[in-house]
Amino acid sequence: MTAMNDRIVFEDVSKFYGEVLGVNRVSLSIPSGVTTLVGPNGSGKTTLMNLMTGLVQPSSGQISVFGLPPGDADRFFRQVGYSTQFDSFPRRLTGWEFLLDSLLLHGMSEGEAFRLAGEALERVRLGDAGSRRIETYSKGMRQKIRLAQAIAHHPRVLVLDEPLNGLDPMARAESLALFQELSRQGMHLVISSHILDEVDRISDRVILITGGYIVAEGAIHQVRREVRDKPMQVLIRCDKPELLASRMFSANHCAEARLHVDGKGVFLRTGDIDEFYRLLNEIAVEGLVKIDTVAPADDDTHAIYQYLIGSEGIPS
Amino acid sequence: MNTEAVSARVKSILVQPWGFWWLQMRRLVRIELRRNLFSRKAAWIYFLAFIPTAVILIHVLHDTHPASGLSLDTNVLAGIVQFYYIRLGVFFGCLGIFSRLVRGEMIERSLHFYLLSPVRREILLLAKFAAGSISALLLFGSAVIAAFAFLYAAYGTAGLDYVFHGPGLGQLGAYLLIVTLGCLGYGAVFLLLSMMFRNPMPAAMLVMGWEAINPVLPSLLQKISVASYLRHLMPITVPGEGVFALLTVETEPVAGWVACLGLLTLIVIVLAYSCFRIRRLEIRYTTE
Amino acid sequence: MSVYRHEYRAYTGKLTPLWTRVRVVARYALGEAWSSRITVGLFTFSMLPVVVYLIGIFLANNALARVLVMQGNGVLEVNSGYFLRVLSTQCWFAVVMTAWIAPRLVSFDLADNALPILLSHPISRFRFVLGKFIALFLCLSLVTWVPGLLLFAYQGYSCSKPWMGANLRIVTGLLLGALLWIGFLSMLGLALSSWVKWRTVAIGVIFAAVFVPAGVGGIITAILRTRWGYLLNLPVMMTQLWQRFLGAPPTMRDDMRLPTSAIALVLATVCLICVAMLNARIRAREVVRG
Questions:
Q1: Any bridge partners for residue A8, and if so which?
Q2: How many domains does chain B have?
Q3: SS3 call for A24
C-alpha cells in the first residue's frame, strides 16, 4: 500500500452552500492516530467531516480515504465509521435492532452481525440498555449508541463529531480511553470536540479551522513552535524560583515571569525557546538553583486555539 | 463499438458484486417493510385501503341480496376501483408511503444512517421503491380482493357462478393489475417529487389537479397521466355522475397492452431520473 | 457583613389590555403566512376566476360588448346560479389556501418546540389559537367573500335595473355561506396542523381530510343505497347548503338531498372535534422525543 493510500486526503477542497462558504481550499493529508478538529461554532468542522464521508459533496476538489472516494459506498463505508452530531434515529428501534440493521447492510451473516452488535454495545458500556427503545435513552446513551454503530463493523477510520457531548465525566473518561485504545491499534480517528482539555490528552495532531479556512495543522508541539509571534510559556519547578527568574531576565531571554501559587515554581515566557533552554542548562550546571521539572505550560490545543483563533470564538 | 469493447463492457458488468447488492437489497426491503407496515403511523393507510371493504362487509351483513342486485353491485365495485382507489385511496396512500421513504427520513433526520452504510445509493433508492411498492400492493391488493370476495360471496351460488363461470375472475385480475400499476406509477412519481422538493405536497397536489384536468388537455399531454392509462384497463366503464364526473378521466381509447407498457415506461424513466438525483443528494437537515 | 445593592426593579409601566394581545399573535401569523411566495402565488391564482366572473358581469350588462365578444350566441344571466358558481370556485381555492397556510401557522411552533416559550408569555391557549384563527380567517376572507361582495357590488352598479335591492338574498347567502365555510376550514386546518408535527405532512392531511371522506361517503351512498353517505362528503354537503342560502335551483335528485339540520349537525360536530383536538394538543409542555 502506498503512503497516500493509508491516509485521509483532501485535495484543494471547497464547499459552498449557495453563497455561504463552508470550507475553502482545504488540502490535508491525515495519517493514523488521533486528529482533533478545533474551531469556533460555524467554522466548518462538521462540513469537513460531512465532506469526508460523502454526506455533502465538494463544490470543487477531491476527497479520498485510503484512496477510495466516498461515492464508492460499497468499499468506502466498510473502512469508515461516522458518529454524527444529528441526535435522531429511525423510529421505534431498540439499540440492538439499530445496530443489527446497520451490520446486516454491511453484508454480514446474521450470526456475525449479532456477535458484532453485542461486542459494540459492550465496548460503549450499553449492554443492558440494548433491548430498550432508543426513544427512551438519555442524551448520553444516544451518544453512546451512535458511537457503537460507528465502531461496530470494525472500521479503519472513525470520524466523531462532538463525541463527548452529553456524556458525564465517567463516560467521557471511558470514551477517551476507548479512542486511545483504538488509536493504539492503528485506527485513524478524526474528532471534533470543544472539550479541549480532555481531547488534548489523547490527540496526536490538531487541525485548527476558522471561517472555513485551515489556520494550522500538525502535531501540537510542532504547531506551537510554529506560532513564533507568541512567546512560549514554560513552568519550571525549583527551589529558588525568584533567583531563576532574575537570572533569566538578566540574560534577556525572558519576557514575563509569574510565580506558581505554591511558591515552588515559576512560569517563564520566552520568545527564543532554544536560547532559553541553553541558558537553563547553564543555570542547572552552576548549581545555584535546584531544578526539579521543566514543562511547557502553553503547549496544548487550548493555548494554540487562543493564540491562533482568539478567545472570541468558543470552540465547539 | 467493436467486439472487444463489447466483451470488455460485458465483463465489467459481470464482475460487479451483484450477489452482494441483491443481499443488501433484500435486507433493505425487509427493514423498510417493517417501517411501512408495522408502525402506528401506517394506520391511516390501512384505513384508506380497507374502508371500502368495511362498507361492503356491512352491506353483506346488513342488506338482502336478490340476484337482480348483482349487476348493480358489480358496477358499484367498478366505481369504487375507478373513483375511490385510483383517484383517492391509492393516490393518498402512495403519497404517504413513497414521500416518507426519502423526504420523510430527511424530516426525521435519520436518512444519514443509510447514506453512511456501504450501500450504493441506487440500490438504496430501488430497495426503498420496491419496499414502498410491496407495502402499497399488499394493502390495496388485499383490500380489493377482500372487497371482491365479500361482495360476490353474499350472492351465494349466483355470485360464485359469476366469479368462476362468468367474467368475475377476469374483472378481479383487471382490478389487481390496475391497483398494481397505480401503486407503481404514483409511487414512482411521489418518490421523485419527494427528492426534488423539500416540500413535495404542493407538487403532489398539482399532480392531483393535473390528473383532474387531464381529460380536457390535448391528446399528447393526456399520455402524461397515471389515471388516464389505468382507465383503459377498466373491465367495466362507469360513467361519472355528479361529483364523480369531476374525477372522471376521458381519454382517447388505448389498447390494454399499450396502457401497461406506457405506464411501465413512465415508471422506468422516473426511477432512472430518481437514481440520478439520489447520487447528488446531500444531507443538510438544517434546511428541512 | 456583605452589603448588596438591590437595583433591579420589576417592570411597573403601562400594559396593553389583555384582549389586545391576540392581535400580536394574529399579526405575526399573518406575517408568517404572507412571507411565503407560494401564498402570494396562490392568492394571485385565486383572483383569476374573479377576473373571469367580472368580465362575465360586464358582458351580461353591456349589450354591445356581448354582441362583439359572444356574437349573439348564448344568454349570460347574472343570478343566484352565477353567484353560486362564484362562491363554489372561490371556496375551493380557500381549501388550497388553508392547506398551505394553516400548517405554516401551527406546525412551525410545534416542530421547533416553540410552543412552551410562546405560552410562557401572558397569553392563554385560547388567545393563542384565536390569534392564529383570526389570521387564517382573514387570509381566506380575501379569496372568498371579499371578491364575492365586490362582484355583487359591481353587478349592482352595472345593471341598469334596480338589481341589488331585489337580490339581497344572494348577498346575504354569499356572505353567510362563505363565512361558514372559511370558519369551518380555519378550525379544521388549525386542528389537523396541530396534530401533525411536520408541515409537509400536514398539507397532505388537510387535503385528504376533505377529499377522502368524500370518497368514502360516495362508497357508502352507492353500496348501502342511502343518501346519508353524503354527510361525509363536504363538497356535496356544502353545495347543497350554498344552493339553499343563495336560493339557487338544486342540482341533486330530491331523494339524495340532505336536510339542512343534518348538514349543520355534521359541521358543528366536526368543529367540536377540532376544538377538542386543539385543546388536547396546544399545551405548554415538553415535546416527547420519538
A1: A30, A65
A2: 1
A3: strand
Least confident of A97-101, A273-277, B147-151: A273-277
- Grid coordinates in use for C172? 346575504
Q: What is the pTM of this model?
A: 0.83
Cell of B107: 424530516
pLDDT for A222 beyond 50: yes
**Hey, what CATH class is A4-225 in?**
alpha beta
Task: State yes or no: ipTM above 0.85.
Answer: no
- Rounded CA-CA distance B134/B94 in Å is 11
Residue C235 lies in a domain: yes
B58-65 — which CB contacts under 8 Å span 24+ positions?
B58/C223, B58/C224, B59/B151, B59/B154, B59/C223, B59/C224, B60/B150, B60/B151, B60/B153, B60/B154, B62/C224, B63/C224, B63/C225, B65/B154, B65/B155, B65/B156
Q: What is the Rg, in whole angstroms, of the alpha carbon atoms belonging to chain C?
A: 23
Give the H/E segment covering residue B164. Answer: helix B156-164
Number of domains making up chain C: 1
Cβ atoms of A241 and A235 closer than 8 Å? no
CB contact under 8 A, B284 and A86: no
Touching check for A133 and chain C: CB below 8 Å? yes
C7: in domain: no
| CB neighbourhood size of A195 (10 A) | 16
d(CA A110, CA A116): 10
Distance CA A81, CA C37 (A): 41
In chain A, where does the domain assigned CATH 3.30.70 lie? Answer: 227-303
**C23: in domain:** yes
Give the CATH architecture of domain A227-303.
Answer: 2-Layer Sandwich (3.30)
Neighbours of chain A (3+ CB pairs under 8 A): B, C
Nearest CB among A56, A91, A105 relative to B119 is that of A105
Residue C286 sits at φ, ψ, to 5 deg, of -70, 140
Instruction: Tell me if B28 and A105 make a contact (CB, 8 A cut-off).
Output: yes
* Lowest-pLDDT choice from A35-44, A241-250, A278-287, B238-247: B238-247
For residue A208 the three cell numbers come to: 485548527
Domain with C131 in it? 18-281
Alpha helix stretches (DSSP H) within A26-157: 45-52, 73-79, 95-105, 110-123, 139-151
Q: Flag whether B31 is in a domain.
A: yes
**Predicted confidence band at B120 (pLDDT cuts at 50, 70, 90)?**
very high
Residue in A74, A86, A89 closest to B17 by CB:
A74
Distance of CA A79 to the CA centre of its chain: 19
Q: Which domain holds residue B234?
A: 19-287
**Structural element, H or E, at residue C261:** helix C260-281
DSSP H/E element including C102: helix C80-111
Residues of C in contact with B87 (CB under 8 A): 215
Question: What is the location of CATH 3.40.50.300 in chain A?
Answer: 4-225
CA distance C198 to chain A (A): 15
pLDDT digits (tens, 9 = 90+) for A18-37: 888 899 999 999 998 999 99
Neighbours of chain B (3+ CB pairs under 8 A): A, C
The more confidently predicted of residues C97 and C107 is: C97
Chain B: residue nearest C42 by CA?
Answer: B202
C-alpha cell read off for B262: 406506457
